[in-house]
Amino acid sequence: MSxxxxxxxxxxxxxVKEGKSIRISEAGKSELKELGMMDDKGKLKxxxxxxxxxxxxxxxxxxxxxxxxxxNFIECYVCPNFISRISGQVYCKGEPLATTx
Length: 101
What we know:
Blueprint: E1 12-18, H1 26-34, H2 51-58, E2 60-64, E3 69-72, H3 73-77, E4 82-86, E5 89-92
Antiparallel strand pairs: 1-2, 1-5, 2-3, 4-5
């Protein structure tokens, strides 16, 4: 795959689904805290997103092709493989994730 200037190639296009609320994993929470998107009490604070949008995002999930399981969309949003979300689809780089466990 060749990359055009300023364009990132994606390996997967994943549908964003609604319906079941999946808890954010402890690794995901620590990542959010490191990025300054979650306070010590566990409240999400993402710049540029309203409380209504955050509430909606908490109720969405994706079938992660890299991890091979369903994950909360917010966890997907902060993943290094996340490229963008357009019309209910997530564009994912699909690269292996380094495990810290």
